[in-house]
Amino acid sequence: MSLEPPPTYSPETPSAATADVEHAVAEPQILLIPPANSVSFQKGYLGAEGERAAIEGELQVKCPDGYQWDKVSISLRTVETANGSEIELGNSELVLSSAVEHAPQRSSFPFSIPLPADTPQCVHTPQSSLTHTLSAHLLRSGAGVHAISRSLLVHTRRYTSRPHELTIAPETRTLDDPTRVEVQIPRTTFVAGELLPVYVTVPVPRRELVTEQALRLRNIRAELVRSIQLKDDDAQESVEADVQIQTDSSTDDDANEGSSADPSASSPIGKRGINSSNFAQEAATSSSSDARGDVRVVSFSGASCRLHPTQPIRVRLILHPPTGSPDIPHQALPPGDYYYLESDDDCASITQNTLLHSVTFSLRVHATFMNMSNHTERTSTITIPVTIIPPTARLPEVEHDIDAAYHKKHDRPPERTVRVEDGDAPRYEGVPGPSFLANAPPPFEEREAPPPFSTTAPEASTSSGLPTFMESEREIYLPAHDDPSMPPPSLPPSDLVIEGEGTLFGFTASDRFDGYSDEADRSFTPPPSMEMASRDPDVTRLANLDGTTAMEALEFALDHQEGISHEHLPPPPPPPMDDPSDPPPSIDSAFRAPGDSQTATPQVPAPAFTQVAEETGTHLSVDSPDGHGGEAHAPPPYVVPEHVEHHNVAHPPPYVDLVPNTRDH
């Protein structure tokens, strides 16, 4: 194996490399950035009455020391190109600075270029464009020195004057082939970024279509289509672009029998498939462009449904535009490193006409039917032209400080002032608070207050730390459902409600029906399997018994089942344990209210006594047989002879002396 020699490199003179580096370093850099706290060069509401819009930003020049320039200028040029022709719609140039000898050169130049009120929004297609180019030029005098420039495309957004309200004017289109389909929208004019509701109704079809022709409804889908048409240069007239959306079928006369001569109109199931989710991919890719226009689906929605023999199909579809309302050109930057940058597809978002372009929008609703007799499918389409207008300009926002200062200066002073109540006076530690009545003694401190007469009253914590578990449970507050202080519970996210829906146009949410909802609400119980059925007892012989014998067998089975159930009853629960939350008896137990956990000792009322007529020789013990001496700390009861007549006297009755037991001595 022979070893190849290493490659040789051509030597390079150090002087040439140094010259290239110096030339690269000496080249100045030009940066075009939007204003502070903004992501767009446009400031103001373009097209709104009484508003002024401009392209504003900052030009920064970074050059090495010793580099001298003569003039710095910036220009805004609007150009429309189509079919190889170019038309300049506007050109504005602004000189930012001119060089002065022996003067320090600036590196930052703010600029503002006014925009005419009729400036259109930019348009970008593969064959044509309408662009606004912002160019910065750095000129330097001297022979053989070229000018340095930097160009950047800027996007413009138009707005509508305020106030501008759209009235409700429902638009309805129908289709009767192969069955009736009704499509309704609230109006034909919408604001850019506004939701577009579509109401589709399919009445109950004729019985012959379902039974004889085996017609089935697969799905319904709606598409918002944007069409950019190019105009002829010579006649300056609009040329109808014959670009069609790729649909599954067409509505030809041959479709009445459920078939069509067009291979794309009807095809076997095995070749095309009948998956309902295919329409999403088809709608997303259904865009086409040629030398005379560009057609693109900007939003689509759909739902799977089927015909019903008794109820009409009512489906509401909501089309969401790809982007919302254009951002305010001078709003603050959102938090984070990522923020939305304008794209070319979002520029042609409104209906507009220029010298070479015509931007229009239309709503297309496709109803896909299936013929089960010959396994073919066809799609019927309804088209409604719609107009998309720019969003409304917002009202100027006044800062809160300025608004408050204005009201403070111009509002009338209050008629009376409200004084702070005495009860709100601060309390200091170790000092009693103020009294409610004049010349009254100070209130009790917590440590000197008498015990409460009811355990239901809140008791202060005995420790200076966190409350105990029982104290926390006692302080739990469960407000009632109608308590006004409670905030209302958060409602579940409801369906989108459109003003006027169900009364002025469309139908309500309760009227929607796709043909599957009735089955979804039912709870079907499947039949038992063969293995489960084999485990059931055989009751065939019971069917041949007479009524008396059958009732006796049924009673016997019930009694047997009841005996089995009693045998398997769980054991009784254990006796309840002592409640650990019951406090022990205290010195103020007698002051507790009856029924509390700390019950006082029952006291026996002392009846009136007289002198005993005869002395009893019975030796009494502390534990009397009448059971009044159950507790050790209670006083002994009085001996009340039942056979002796008593008289009411003023002095207290004598106690019975306990005679000591002589047997113990």
Automatic annotation (TrEMBL):
Compositionally biased spans, kind Pro residues: 570-586
Polar residues compositional bias, start-end: 257-267, 454-466
Biased composition (Basic and acidic residues): 407-427, 512-522
UniProt name for this protein: Uncharacterized protein
Renumbered residue ranges of the record's region Disordered: 233-274, 407-466, 512-536, 564-665
